[in-house]
Amino acid sequence: MPETFKALVVDRDADKKQSVAIRDMTLDELMEGDVVVRVRHSTVNYKDGLAITGKLPVVRRWPMIPGIDFCGEVVSSDDPDFKPGDDVILNGWGVGETHLGGYAGLARVKGAWLIRKPADITSAETMAIGTAGYTAMLCVMALERHGVTPETGPVVVTGAAGGVGSVAVAILKKLGFHVIAVTGREAEHAYLTDLGAAEIIGRDELSGDAKMLDKERWAGAVDTVGSKILANVIAMTQSNGAVAACGNAAGMDLPTSVAPFILRGVSLIGINSVFVKRADREAAWARLALDLDRDKLAAMTTTIGFDQIKETAEKIAEGQVRGRVVAEIG
Question: How is residue 118 annotated by DSSP?
Answer without folding.
Answer: P
